[in-house]
Design a protein that fits this description.
Layout (H helix, E strand, L loop, with lengths): L1 E3 L5 E3 L5 E8 L3 H6 L4 H7 L6 E7 L6 E7 L5 E12 L3 E7 L8 E10 L2 E9 L3 H9 L3 H24 L24
Antiparallel strand pairs: 1-2, 3-9, 4-5, 5-6, 6-7, 7-8, 8-9
Length: 190
Amino acid sequence: MATTSSGGEAVHGITDREVVISRVIGAPRELVFEAFTGVRHLSRWWGPEGFTTTTRSFEFRVGGEWDFVMHGPDGIDYQEWITWREIVPPERIALLHGESRDDPNAFESVLTFEPAGEQTRIVMRTVFPTKELRDEAVEKYHAIEGGEQTLRNLAAYVTEAARERSTGRGPATAGETMTDREAGREGTER
């Protein structure tokens, strides 16, 4: 089954268990990559339109975990858990994403960050354990639309961060100390 990128062209998945979404973002890949490295960034853009996140714990390192809740605009809370399987700055992130650490339906995602001049092409390739789980994610949870909205939110956040950094008012880098709110110990909103 083909999925589409934000540019409208078809991006063909190699299996019936896969969803592939891509987008070109008007910022250098180091900055796009950095947006994944801390809660202070993720809480500003992660998820489809209207969603917010509350983080319970976060450690961006291979084997580290992100335990969080996505709050839907309809009032439904979605328990989420990610473990980072591979991190190659600023080129690649591989992760396992489910509802909990032991979720048998967890799916694998690989994000690649490809330089495109002054821009970055991000490709999000997700493989589900079964075709049925992939179809459920696409049909019931609108995974393709949600993924495209998430990458659109990322693009808006990173574009603004690049603008702020160019004026000396940019967000802290991943290594700087965060407040409780920035660390996600309070509810966060976009």
